[in-house]
């Protein structure tokens, strides 16, 4: 047998095996990368400070994981948002969060809780399923069911708008209020 013929047969077999292997592998790549948008980058166990146009802090974010998407929005796992206020910051937590590309809108979804600083004159707590936060306007809003409590007062309703800086809030519909007088010593 001629060595050139043998080399040609070996090269032909190698080309057939390589082509067949590439054909079989192409389906796997499509499944691995076709599962949605890909992240630009991922941050783990981080704290992020968002500044306003004037350079002042508008919100602080802490989370075990953040993923920045191709459209420059960010998905946040188990976020803790701290919004500046006097005497102390509001603490907003949720199962999931989303930050718009320009940082002007934050969404919190799943077991959302908002707690004012315990040292404030009337410490306030609210609970809902979904909340939008506009840090530049110190505004939090939702159209979902909300429960709100302060010392001596418990309220439920559907929809809420709250100014986190001035601690003024407004329940929008189906409001039920219960006054709970404090016990006298």
TrEMBL record:
InterPro entries: LipoPS_assembly_LptC-rel (IPR010664), LPS_export_LptC (IPR052363), LptC (IPR026265)
Keyword presence, Membrane: yes
Region (Disordered): 142-162
MF (Gene Ontology): glycolipid transfer activity; lipopolysaccharide transmembrane transporter activity
Domain of life according to the entry: Bacteria
Topology within the bilayer: Single-pass membrane protein
Subcellular location: Cell inner membrane
A GO CC term assigned to this protein in UniProt: outer membrane-bounded periplasmic space
Keyword tags: Cell inner membrane, Cell membrane, Membrane, Transmembrane, Transmembrane helix
A biological-process GO annotation: Gram-negative-bacterium-type cell outer membrane assembly
UniProt keyword Transmembrane helix, yes or no: yes
Protein role: Involved in the assembly of lipopolysaccharide (LPS). Required for the translocation of LPS from the inner membrane to the outer membrane. Facilitates the transfer of LPS from the inner membrane to the periplasmic protein LptA. Could be a docking site for LptA.
Family note: Belongs to the LptC family.
Assembly description: Component of the lipopolysaccharide transport and assembly complex. Interacts with LptA and the LptBFG transporter complex.
Annotated protein name in UniProt: Lipopolysaccharide export system protein LptC
Origin organism lineage: Bacteria, Pseudomonadati, Pseudomonadota, Gammaproteobacteria, Lysobacterales
């Amino acid at each position: 047998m001629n060595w050139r013929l043998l080399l040609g047969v070996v090269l032909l077999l190698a080309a057939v095996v390589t082509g067949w292997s590439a054909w079989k592998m192409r389906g796997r790549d499509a499944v691995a990368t076709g599962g949605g948008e890909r992240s630009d980058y991922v941050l783990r166990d981080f704290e992020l400070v968002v500044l306003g146009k004037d350079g002042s802090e508008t919100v602080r974010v802490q989370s075990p994981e953040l993923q920045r998407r191709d459209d420059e929005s960010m998905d946040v796992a188990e976020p803790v948002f701290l919004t500046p206020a006097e005497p102390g910051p509001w603490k907003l937590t949720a199962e999931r969060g989303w930050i718009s590309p320009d940082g002007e809108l934050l969404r919190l979804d799943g077991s959302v809780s908002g707690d004012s600083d315990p040292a404030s004159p009337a410490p306030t707590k609210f609970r809902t399923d979904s909340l939008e936060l506009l840090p530049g306007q110190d505004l939090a809003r939702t159209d979902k069911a909300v429960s709100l409590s302060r010392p001596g007062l418990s309220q439920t309703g559907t929809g809420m708008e709250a100014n986190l800086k001035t601690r003024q809030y407004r329940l929008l519909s189906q409001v039920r209020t219960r006054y709970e007088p404090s016990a006298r010593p």
